[in-house]
Task: inverse folding
């Protein structure tokens, strides 16, 4: 079967683009807005509407395969590709990407993904990660349609894996509404919660980290008092966006001691701390997280470090895993470009005794979340992000229900 046509449709995402540098520099919340000047190139305001592009493959039999190009909330930060605006990139897809597929046979997912993901332009660079992300989703869907299989089955076949016999634990994120949204998570029995968005020292973390401590005490009590069933035992996963670097002036011993305290407050629930430090560069980040992990283990703490910033590409993930820079690796799917890289990242983590977390961003779409659900079911990471959005209910529903459908069809097709 061949691909007859490639069509682009501009779209919206489930959240916003936020200028992380401006926020760290002191831009203040004002309702849904941020007040302050944008710093990162491409941004016209500290927060602006998220954009996506749906890539539609029209097949010979009239079926339509599709995927969504999307970029992370904090685009342009931490070594990532620049801001992704639909009007700038639709012409590139139509003029440069479409010829790679139109009139061509649908072959294997790996081969079709490589056409765009491994393609090097005349300037020596790869295509924007968001383009590679969405186009490879469409490739996977096209192969699945041509074989009358679900996407997870295509992945399992090509990568020699087994589809999970249960839904992968879902990690839900609260946004700034970390109290009300945590209640929603507990009520629904979410496996990992609440993210909590501790991205500003003065207003959210506390000048000595006291606000995080207060929140964890509240959350622990809230979970214990409102369990939806007796055996409910979620992991607590908070993202601190490198703010502990500021609070403790990058004193790793002090940061480790603080994280040990947080772990004690969280007990009996497992605590995961994402992005405890941000060293403004990959090599320094790897060194710091490796040392911090060693310090925590020396102190007998079971707190788990989650690597995020500066861990963007498949090679980055391999480097972090090899150096034991953290216990868990967030595979931030849009940052890796082609979804083939996300698949390989999970498998590499599992082969090297690192905890794999298929993440992404609140700033994705329902379609990219659904496709990633198939990756999760085919590769069995430790957890999968409930995305898009920060409202809990919608993102949790999208990924839970898609994985449930895969599970129901596992032995049928």
Result:
């Amino acid at each position: 079967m061949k691909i007859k046509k490639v069509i682009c449709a501009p779209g919206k995402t489930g959240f916003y683009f936020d200028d992380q540098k401006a926020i760290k520099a002191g831009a203040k919340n004002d309702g849904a807005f941020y007040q302050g000047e944008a710093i990162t190139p491409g941004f016209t305001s500290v927060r602006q509407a998220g954009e996506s592009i749906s890539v539609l493959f029209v097949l010979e039999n009239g079926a339509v395969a599709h995927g969504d190009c999307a970029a992370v909330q904090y685009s342009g930060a931490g070594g990532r590709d620049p801001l992704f605006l639909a009007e700038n990139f639709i012409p590139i897809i139509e003029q440069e990407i479409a010829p790679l597929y139109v009139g061509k046979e649908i072959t294997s997912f790996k081969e079709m993904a490589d056409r765009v993901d491994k393609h090097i332009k005349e300037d020596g660079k790869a295509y924007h990660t968001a383009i590679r992300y969405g186009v490879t989703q469409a490739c996977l869907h096209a192969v699945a349609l041509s074989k009358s299989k679900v996407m997870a089955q295509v992945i399992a076949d090509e990568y020699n894996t087994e589809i999970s016999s249960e839904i992968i634990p879902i990690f839900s994120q609260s946004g700034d509404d970390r109290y009300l949204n945590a209640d929603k998570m507990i009520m629904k029995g979410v496996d990992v919660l609440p993210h909590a968005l501790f991205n500003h020292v003065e207003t959210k973390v506390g000048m000595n980290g006291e606000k995080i401590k207060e929140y964890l005490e509240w959350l622990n009590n809230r979970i214990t008092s409102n369990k939806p069933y007796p055996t409910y035992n979620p992991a607590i996963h908070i993202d601190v966006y490198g703010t502990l670097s500021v609070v403790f002036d990058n004193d790793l011993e002090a940061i480790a001691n603080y994280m040990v305290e947080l772990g004690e407050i969280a007990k009996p629930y497992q605590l995961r701390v994402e992005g405890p430090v941000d060293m403004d560069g990959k090599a320094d980040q790897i060194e710091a997280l490796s040392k911090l992990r060693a310090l925590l283990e020396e102190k007998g703490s079971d707190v788990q470090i989650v690597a995020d910033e500066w861990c963007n590409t498949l090679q980055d993930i391999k480097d972090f895993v090899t150096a034991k820079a953290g216990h868990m690796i967030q595979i931030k799917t849009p940052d890796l470009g082609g979804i083939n890289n996300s698949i390989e990242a999970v498998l590499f983590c599992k082969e090297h005794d690192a905890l794999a977390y298929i993440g992404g961003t609140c700033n994705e779409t329902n379609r990219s979340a659904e496709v990633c659900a198939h990756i999760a079911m085919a590769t069995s990471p430790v957890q999968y992000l409930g995305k898009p959005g920060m409202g809990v209910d919608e993102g949790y529903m999208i990924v839970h229900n898609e994985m449930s459908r895969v599970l129901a069809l596992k032995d049928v097709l």
Summary: The longest strand covers residues 3-18. The chain has two domains: 3-159, 170-409. The domain at 170-409 is CATH 3.20.20.120 (TIM Barrel). The two ends are 20 Å apart (CA to CA).
